[in-house]
Design goal:
This protein has 396 residues and is of the alpha+beta class. The chain is built from 8 helices and 17 strands. The chain has a 6-stranded antiparallel beta barrel. The protein has a 4-stranded antiparallel β-sheet with strand order 3-10-8-5, with no helix packed on it. The two termini are 12 Å apart.
Length: 396
């Protein structure tokens, strides 16, 4: 509503309006035309009630569930940014998790470093594997080629024939010797010795003949299939060895490198999480201020979201209106001067200025908007929560 510096004139004017209305005349409309009294200019103002609050304040809570092990402040105590307000229990377990995470990070970093340090050795091993695979393929292809002609080379056949001839000759000699003693009794030791040599020579001759006949034969389907499989296996080994060597040309094995990097990244994140968990056991002041209220005591159980401490910067007090209607707020601009008085400090009249107008109405009955009033000089003995009466000058 509109008021003038000479409040008595306003009351008189309202009485005149009511008198005219009661006489049945045409109702009068309220205007903002200035009324002069004794040559003094009247300034239109809008009045509202408000509360004194800090410009910067917060209700603090903990980020972790636990029991308050240490409560290090009392109500009314001034604290500075970063000062510890309380500590929760469980620090030993959190510190152990940090130690474990550090060890894993060191191990993961060393494993990653070793991939680069062992790169030359890994390349040499890959080259050796490739060379062995190529030799294996070469031998397998030769053996497969032999299957198209026979079971053995000419040199092998010549050796087998020679072995058979020698075995046959030895057998004939042993046979002659046995004929000389064949007439003796079967239990005669001399006869038995010659018979043993004769039997052994015959066995050697038979094995040599069997080997020669096998070498002279053609490979069957099973032998050819086995030779083809050996060639295919050798080719696959060559390709795999070549891929491994190619992967090492530009650095460590990509799969091993990806695994090592993922392990290190996980270790770093685990260490950060462990440190954050330890940090969350401590509540620190986010700014300089005064502990205005404690909602908890030492040894109490607290949880995230639970109010713990009310902290405010009492060096920068302001007023926030509580009953400024939508009609009145439309007449106010940021920068409008204001005069503030207090029930608790009747002798104090503080000069101030509008610094903020809420963009949305406040919750509650009626449509009211919060307007912030900043003092030119904060009055002494002014306390958080005191009731204030604001007269805001308006040009509208």
């Amino acid at each position: 509503m509109y008021l003038w510096c000479k409040r008595g004139c306003v009351v008189l004017w309202l009485l005149v309006v009511l008198l005219i209305s009661s006489c049945g005349g045409k109702p009068a409309t309220m205007t903002s035309t200035p009324v002069e009294d004794e040559g003094e200019e009247f300034v239109p103002v809008i009045s509202a009630t408000g509360k004194v609050v800090p410009q910067h304040w917060a209700t603090l809570g903990v980020k972790s569930t636990g029991v308050i092990e240490e409560l290090l402040v009392v109500e009314g105590e001034e604290v500075v940014e970063g000062q510890v307000i309380l500590r929760l229990g469980g620090r030993e377990q959190a510190e152990a998790l940090i130690t474990s995470a550090k060890l894993e990070e060191i191990a993961a970093r060393q494993a990653l470093d070793m991939l680069y340090k062992d790169l030359d050795r890994s390349r040499a091993l890959a080259q050796q594997r490739l060379a062995d695979a190529r030799k294996m393929l070469e031998d397998a292809e030769k053996r497969r080629k032999y299957k198209d002609y026979g079971r053995a080379s000419q040199a092998t056949l010549d050796a087998a024939r020679a072995n058979y001839i020698l075995a046959q000759d030895a057998f004939e000699d042993a046979e002659k010797d046995f004929k000389d003693v064949a007439w003796m009794a079967e239990d005669d030791p001399a006869r038995a010795a010659v018979l043993s040599q004769y039997a052994a020579a015959r066995a050697v001759r038979d094995r040599a003949l069997e080997n020669l006949n096998w070498l002279l034969g053609r490979p069957n389907d099973v032998e050819i299939a086995q030779a083809d499989a050996a060639v295919a296996l050798a080719k696959a080994e060559v390709e795999a060895a070549q891929r491994d060597l190619d992967d090492l040309k530009d650095g460590p094995d990509p799969d091993q490198l990806e695994l090592a990097q993922a392990r290190l990244s996980n270790a770093v994140e685990a260490l950060d999480a462990a440190r954050k968990a330890l940090e969350d056991l401590t509540l620190k002041a986010p700014f300089d201020g005064t502990v205005s209220r404690l909602y908890v005591r030492a040894q109490e159980w607290v949880a995230p979201g639970q109010p713990v401490v009310l902290l405010g910067d009492l060096t920068q007090l302001i007023v926030e209106t509580t009953d400024l209607s939508e009609i009145d707020v439309a007449q106010i601009d940021v920068g409008n001067p204001a005069t503030v008085t207090f029930d608790a400090l009747p002798e104090v009249v503080a000069q101030a200025q509008v610094t903020r107008i809420a963009p949305k109405s406040s919750e509650g009955s009626g449509v009211n908007y919060t307007v912030t009033i900043a003092f030119e000089d904060v009055p002494e003995r002014l306390l958080w929560g005191m009731t204030a009466f604001v007269d805001i000058q308006t040009n509208r």
